[in-house]
Amino acid sequence: MSTLDWLSKQINEVVEELDLSSSVYQILKEPKHCIKVSIPLEKDDGTVETYTGFRSVHSDLLGPGKGGIRFHENVSEEEVVALSMWMTMKTAILKLPFGGAKGGVQIDPSTLSKRELQQLSRQYIQQIEPVIGPQKDIPAPDVNTNGRVMGWMMDEFFKLRGRNIPGFITGKPPVIGGSEGRVEATGKGVVINILEALKKLDMEADQAKVAIQGFGNVGSVTAKSLSEKGMKITAVADVDTLVYDENGLDIPDMLEYMENNQSLKGYAEEKDPKEIFDIDCDIFIPAALENQITEETAPKIKAKIVAEAANGPTTEKGDDILAENGVFVIPDILCNAGGVMVSAFEWMQNDMHDHWAKEVVNERLEKDMSIAFQEVYDMKEEIDKSMRHAAFYLAVKRLGDAMYARGWVV
Predict the structure, then answer these.
(1) CA-CA distance, 237 to 219, in Å (whole number)?
(2) How far apart are CA 171 and CA 157, in angstroms?
(3) Cα–Cα distance between 191 and 153 in angstroms, integer?
(4) pLDDT averaged over consecutive 10-residue blocks of the chain (410 residues)?
């Protein structure tokens, strides 16, 4: 079963459990729109190469679409549609005034020069400009994009519209209207969820051993924050290698190495990154790409908690195996929602022409993420299902209520 099929299946199951109109499922199983664009890019040598881009808005029921833009060679229409559906669920769980959206370009950005990357970013915005805007669809960073890329995209959008519209995009550098704390927000949200889970399971934070798959923005921020709270990070894997020390890794030193080398390759003895699943740990954090915890890798996981920092890291069969083994899974649509939470704060600040201190942002993030975790946990206890099912249950119930309130269903 594909990721998209599994998502649709989960939504349909909840619609039936809630005894909602079948129209709710019919509306949620497809995106409002998904556009495909062709992006001709003039390379530094004067040749032109064409790349394919996408932008999907799954829902605008609760507000404008909201979701990141990724640059990755595996970007596809099915992927961005699935990711936009997840975003709809996230924003509903967090009670944010957004729907779900996602976009991307099929490209390995490491093959581009800085000039080429900027031109690609601008031309992507040129192509999707008719369907985006602060009250229509609001992009943000995702895999292989960052604040710098968002700044280029914002500048291009301003040129196209002929005026300053900072709320059109989030994840910008603070100097041009971005929110303090946005870069770290997804990782900090993961940490908040983990700490809440430890309380529920009566586990001591300073006794916990952690393994992390992925050492990009989310994985590195999560590792740094957890180590500062006394947890022992024993294993970290990136696409090139696995770094392991049963006594705990020196995360600040690894972060410095990563800053200088853009990879953990060469930091320590070379190990197969796939061995991350075999590590003896209390908390396992997939912070890479989709479909990592499968029927092959799930049986290897020894952790008591799996905190899904990535989007869609677990397949249906992998999820079944984790459930059978009694693993407490913090689902992606809750666990990694800190990024969209602070993106919402940024959008609000832009709308009010305001700028919040980092302490204000972090305090509100912790409060709102803790409330969201508690609501999903309470629903889990009420319906006696997994945290993933409870999260979908809560999201679909709110979406169904909104459809009824707006007259979309009867």
Answers:
(1) 9
(2) 15
(3) 30
(4) 90 97 96 97 96 98 97 96 96 97 97 98 98 97 95 97 95 96 96 98 93 95 95 95 95 95 90 95 95 96 97 95 97 96 97 96 97 98 97 98 96
- Indicate which residue of 32, 90, 102, 224 is catalytic: 102
Catalytic residue at 397? no
Token pair 């949620």 is found at 28
State the Cα–Cα distance between residues 338 and 345, nearest whole angstrom: 11
Per residue in 307-324, is it b (16+ CB within 10 Å) or e — as a string? Answer: bbbbbbbbbbebbebbbe
Beta carbons of 29 and 338 less than 8 angstroms apart: no
Question: What is the phi/psi pair of residue 173, to 5°?
Answer: -60, 145
| pLDDT tens digits, one per residue of 12-26 | 999 999 999 999 999
For residues 177 and 171, the answer to whether their CB atoms sit within 8 Å is: no
Q: Which residues on neighbouring strands pair with residue 35, listed in sequence order?
A: 55
Q: What stretches of 30-96 adopt beta strand conformation (E)? A: 33-42, 48-57, 65-72
Tell me how far apart the alpha carbons of residues 199 and 342 are, in angstroms, rounded to a whole number: 24
Q: What is the dihedral of CA 201, 204, 205, 206, to 10 degrees?
A: -160
Q: What is the rounded CA–CA span in Å between residue 344 and residue 346?
A: 5
Number of C-beta neighbours around residue 206 at 10 A = 8
Q: Are 353 and 331 in contact (CB under 8 A)?
A: no
Dihedral pair phi/psi, residue 380, rounded to 5°: -55, -45
The whole-angstrom separation of Cα 392 and Cα 388 is 6
Task: Using only the alpha carbons of the chain, give its radius of gyration.
Answer: 20
Give burial (CB, 10 Å; 0-12/13-18/19+) of 120: buried
Tell me phi and psi for residue 241, to 5 degrees.
-160, 170
By CB neighbour count within 10 A (0-12 exposed, 13-18 middle, 19+ buried), where does 169 fall? buried
Burial 182-202 (b: 16+ CB within 10 A, else e): bbbbbbbbbbbbbbbbbeeee
